[in-house]
Write a sequence for this structure.
């Protein structure tokens, strides 16, 4: 898994590539939570390079999503591949997150 | 030929009658027997007495062992508490052997008449009498069968038979005959009753009958282990307790005969005298002595018995998973604590839900066998909570707390249905040789939702609101998936059918998670009723808006 961080105004963009599986879920969650705790703008997670997501990856997003919601900040997901979009639709995550 | 036919018919009636009696006695007295066994933990003697009563009531030591096994797995009894009960169950079964020793021909005829008239006047249709009518019919068949067995050999040329058995049956042959008869009938009392019949017809002498009954006694213990099949852990431990009772009984009573002879007494004659000169009564006493001689030492040395049984059949994952951690019989005395404990146990059950699903991302984490054991364990806890709450409500709780108890009962029911749905879903997913992408997505999605629900039990109301949002209606999406699958079903066959099933089970699982979350959220919802009053789509939009980040 590879994560690139980019600052766009007050918002942060995280470009993720690879597999969001159990071994990668912890470092992924740590990257998300670092943005939550060190910035105060929105967070956009670009998942264009993600071709696999498991329950661990989904839970990492859920933890970050809850933290952002508590801080009344916006977390957006973008560029989901069709098979990844299907997981988000089936799991109900599409109703929790804004997807662009 | 007529004699053989009469004996075989007698045996047939005996088998059917015993089966009927045992089944319907368990249904008629099962709840009371269960309650009786629960109160048997005070001392080994109390356990023995309760077990004996239960054995007499069900006429099956196996039934007592099975009920005790379920109570142990449900955490109501410890294995050590169950040992005297299982031992006592054997003593209770002696009741029927004593009945067989009585000349009951007239009684049988009246009983058959009574049962026949009862059925003619439709007494069997009354709920209170239904099971007891079947018990009476079973008893009538048993006694009628016994009468056939007793009458049959009377037609034999006893003088010729006596000449044939001039030197009696060799002890080891008699022992093996008894052993085989008990293994076939899975009971020690049935061959003993048969021997009583043959003695009353003067076909067998007391000395021959003694070895046959001792063989039957040991044989029924061994048959309990054989019939236990794939049963493991605690359930099998109690089967070994059963064998120990029988083996110790045979050993002690068997040793008494040579010891008595060595002391210059005639043990067979002494036994005959104890039976008041009636060989069948003497044999019934021997049968009782075998049960008591096995049951008492095994019960008194229950710590040793438990160690032996545990060494022969160590506890399984299922045993560990089926033990409630919070609820226990004594808590029923204090309704407030009992309700609190039942709630904690239900929350624990919710936390255990993720263990019922496979982690497809880490396939080395627990196999199907372990998940099956965990499901059975969780199921047993669900049944125990249900029973606990039913007992609590039956004992009477303040009117103000009744809604809480009923709410908890409904929640437990939902969680139990969810357990079964997750188990069925897991079976479908694990049935694929290679998990298709859709099944993977369904499984990982359901796992995420279930893990979130488990986490929410320690969280706040917002976490539950999030679950409610996450489990919003997705029937359009799933219908679309199903239509797509149906269109491709002709090409892919069985896999497509299984995927359709997985989709339905997924949808049901999500709906049940939602129901669980709503039930867990209920007290807070009562405080702000307007939130729950928002109808359909508007409510969904509110939920989605509330959680969109």
């Amino acid at each position: 898994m590879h994560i690139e961080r980019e600052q766009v105004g007050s918002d942060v963009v995280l470009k993720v590539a690879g597999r969001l599986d159990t071994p990668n879920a912890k470092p992924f969650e740590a990257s998300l939570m670092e943005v939550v705790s060190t910035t105060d703008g929105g967070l956009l997670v670009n998942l264009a390079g993600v071709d696999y997501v498991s329950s661990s990856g989904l839970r990492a997003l859920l933890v970050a999503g809850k933290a952002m919601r508590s801080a009344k900040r916006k977390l957006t997901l973008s560029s989901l591949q069709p098979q990844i979009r299907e997981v988000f639709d089936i799991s109900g995550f599409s109703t929790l997150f804004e997807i662009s | 030929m007529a004699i053989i036919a009469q004996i075989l018919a007698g045996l047939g009636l005996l088998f059917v009658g015993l089966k009927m009696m045992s089944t319907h006695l368990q249904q008629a007295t099962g709840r009371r027997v269960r309650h009786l066994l629960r109160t048997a933990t005070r001392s080994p003697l109390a356990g023995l007495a309760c077990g004996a009563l239960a054995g007499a009531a069900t006429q099956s030591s196996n039934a007592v062992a099975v009920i005790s096994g379920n109570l142990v797995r449900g955490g109501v009894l410890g294995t050590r508490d169950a040992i005297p009960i299982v031992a006592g169950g054997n003593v209770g079964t002696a009741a029927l052997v004593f009945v067989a020793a009585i000349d009951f021909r007239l009684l049988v005829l009246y009983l058959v008449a009574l049962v026949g008239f009862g059925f003619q006047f439709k007494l069997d249709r009354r709920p209170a009498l239904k099971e007891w009518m079947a018990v009476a019919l079973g008893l009538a068949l048993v006694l009628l069968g016994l009468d056939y067995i007793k009458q049959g050999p009377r037609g034999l040329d006893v003088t010729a038979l006596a000449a044939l058995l001039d030197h009696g049956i060799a002890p080891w042959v008699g022992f093996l005959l008894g052993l085989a008869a008990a293994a076939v009938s899975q009971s020690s009392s049935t061959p003993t009753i048969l021997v009583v019949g043959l003695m009353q017809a003067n076909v067998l002498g007391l000395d021959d009958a003694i070895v046959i009954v001792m063989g039957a006694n040991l044989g029924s213990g061994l048959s309990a282990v054989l019939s236990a099949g794939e049963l493991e852990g605690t359930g099998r431990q109690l089967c070994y307790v059963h064998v120990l009772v029988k083996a110790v009984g045979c050993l002690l009573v068997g040793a008494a005969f040579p010891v008595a002879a060595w002391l210059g007494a005639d043990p067979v004659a002494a036994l005959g005298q104890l039976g008041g000169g009636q060989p069948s009564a003497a044999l019934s006493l021997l049968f009782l002595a075998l049960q008591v001689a096995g049951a008492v030492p095994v019960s008194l040395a229950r710590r040793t018995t438990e160690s032996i049984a545990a060494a022969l059949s160590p506890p399984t994952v299922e045993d560990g998973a089926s033990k409630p951690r919070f609820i226990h019989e004594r808590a029923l005395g204090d309704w407030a604590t009992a309700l609190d404990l039942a709630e904690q146990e239900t929350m624990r059950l919710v936390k255990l839900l993720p263990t019922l699903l496979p982690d497809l991302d880490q396939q080395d984490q627990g196999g199907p066998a372990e998940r099956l054991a965990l499901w059975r364990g969780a199921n047993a806890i669900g049944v125990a909570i249900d029973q606990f709450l039913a007992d609590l409500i039956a004992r009477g709780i303040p009117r103000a707390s009744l809604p809480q108890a009923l709410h908890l009962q409904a929640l437990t029911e939902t969680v139990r249905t969810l357990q079964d749905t997750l188990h069925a879903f897991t079976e479908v997913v694990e049935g694929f040789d290679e998990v298709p992408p859709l099944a993977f997505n369904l499984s990982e999605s359901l796992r995420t939702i279930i893990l979130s629900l488990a986490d929410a039990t320690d969280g706040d109301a917002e976490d539950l609101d999030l679950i409610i949002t996450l489990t919003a209606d997705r029937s359009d999406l799933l219908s679309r998936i199903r239509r797509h699958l149906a269109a491709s079903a002709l090409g892919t066959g069985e896999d497509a059918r299984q995927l359709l099933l997985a989709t339905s089970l997924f949808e049901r699982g999500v709906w049940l998670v939602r129901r669980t979350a709503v039930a867990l959220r209920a007290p807070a919802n009562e405080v702000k009723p307007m939130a729950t009053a928002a109808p359909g789509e508007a409510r969904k939009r509110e939920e989605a808006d509330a959680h969109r980040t």
User: Anything to note?
Assistant: Chain A has one domain: 2-99. The domain at 2-99 of chain A is CATH 3.30.750.24 (Transcription Regulator spoIIAA). The helical segments of chain A are 22-38, 55-70, 82-91, 93-96.
